[in-house]
Structure formats: structure tokens, C-alpha cells
Design goal:
Shape: elongated
Number of domains: 1
Structural class: mainly alpha
Number of strands: 2
Helix content: 40-55%
Largest sheet: 2 strands, antiparallel
Strand content: under 5%
Distance between the termini: 20 Å
Number of helices: 2
Strand order of the largest sheet: 1-2
Radius of gyration: 17 Å
Order of helices and strands: EHHE
Length: about 90
């Protein structure tokens, strides 16, 4: 959510907070190193995969210009437009 990939459930707005996202990724990386040797192979693989995906998404978002993106919100849509007709 901090990368702006998902909308906030209450506001329907996707907002990027790259500083918080970086801190979250760093925290997960620290947890990964602290749990070294205490996880099953499947858990280690899942942890590594999630961290890799988060890091790639972070780099992708950091390369984009800073702007707030809003997702479709039916309450503000023009009359007659539905979620299914949203881009």
C-alpha cells in the first residue's frame, strides 16, 4: 500500500510514501536476517521472493515522477458510469 499499488480501503486513494515503504522493506530484510536458520526451506524461499518483489516494486515506483494517483471511486463518478466502465 505504501508503494501506491493499492488504494487505502477507507479513502479509495492510492498514495505513495516511499520513505515508509523503504523503512518497511528494511525492517523485513532485518527480520529475514534475524530468522536465518530458524525457518523451513519453504518459508525462507517465500520470504526471499517477497523481499525481491518488494524491492523491484520500490525501484519501479522510485523511478516514477512524484504524484498522487487516485483509483476509481463510484461516489465521485459521473452519472451513469459504473466501476465496470472505469479504465
Amino acid at each position: 500500500m505504501q508503494l501506491g499499488k493499492f488504494a487505502h480501503p477507507e479513502t479509495g486513494v492510492a498514495e505513495r510514501d516511499l520513505d515508509s515503504a523503504r523503512m518497511t522493506i528494511d525492517t523485513l530484510q532485518m527480520l529475514r536476517s534475524k530468522t536465518q536458520g530458524n525457518l523451513s526451506r519453504e518459508e525462507e524461499s517465500l520470504f526471499d521472493q517477497i523481499l525481491a518483489e518488494l524491492k523491484l516494486n520500490y525501484v519501479d515506483e522510485a523511478g516514477k515522477p512524484a504524484s498522487k494517483s487516485t483509483l476509481f471511486d463510484a461516489s465521485t463518478a459521473p452519472a451513469g458510469e459504473t466501476a465496470s466502465s472505469a479504465p
